[in-house]
Amino acid sequence: MVATLRIRSTLAAGVMAAGLLQFGQGAYIHAKAALAQVLLERAWYRTLKERTETRPWSWADTWPVARLKVPALDIDQIVLDGESGNVLAFAPGRLKGSAPAGTRGRVVISGHRDTHFRFLEEIASGELLLLEYPDGSERRFRVAGTRIVDTSVRNGDWLYSSADGLTLMTCYPFDAVRPGGAMRYLVDAEPA
Q1: What are the residues facing 108 on neighbouring strands?
Q2: At 120, phi and psi to the nearest 5?
Q3: How far from 61 is each of 48, 54, 55, 160, 185, CA to CA, in Å?
Q4: What pTM was computed for the model?
Q5: Domain boundaries, the chain
Q6: How is domain 61-191 classified at the CATH fold level?
Q7: What is the C-alpha to C-alpha distance for residues 56 and 64, in angstroms, rounded to an integer?
Q8: Chain centroid offset of residue 190 CA
Q9: Strands 93-94 and 75-81, how do they pair?
């Protein structure tokens, strides 16, 4: 009887410790994400003020290149340079090979469907999109349409274009359980 109680107590303590560990890890991730947003904001304002590439933290391999706003949906996000997993964990990223922020050409910005770009599911044709650049200028775009592409059967022509504009890209479908996949949801916008 005493041995059974001891085993149950040990198991209960182990389950409680595992639960506390899981809770702590979840709280850590949210705290890290909140701190990252503060650091991104600071880096953006320093970029605007100093007109230089300002990394949000010393070991970052990216920096803010634009600020994306969708007024109708109350969206305001810092856009980082690059599309690596490290970049997209903190903010949407400008794809290498697309037009650099502040220049003419097609700017392509990618973001995760379940975080920063979740709002793409709600965006409508005609919606106003604003891109603010490090030099303080702002470009206005209107959503021309959306499309879904299968990246496994296309060679990338669906993405890059010499036409002036903005494309927002995320994985599709929005409610998929598994990350990644070959399908992409694109929002194409033209200069307003």
Answers
A1: 167
A2: -60, -25
A3: 19, 10, 7, 24, 26
A4: 0.83
A5: 61-191
A6: Sortase; Chain: A; (2.40.260)
A7: 8
A8: 21
A9: parallel
Copy the structure tokens of residue 64. 């803010």
pLDDT in tens, 60-112: 999 999 999 999 999 999 999 999 988 988 999 999 888 887 788 899 999 99
Q: Cβ distance 143 to 187 under 8 Å?
A: yes
Please report the DSSP string for 119-171 in residue order: GGGG--TT-EEEEE-TTS-EEEEEEEEEEEEETTS--STTT--SSSEEEEEEE
- At residue 51's C-alpha, the angle toward residues 44 and 168, to 5°, is 50
Interval 21-52: pLDDT, tens = 777 666 666 677 678 888 999 999 999 999 88
Q: Give 41-44's long-range contacts (Cβ < 8 A, gap of 24+).
A: 41/78, 43/78, 44/78
| Structure-block tokens of residue 39 | 């650091």
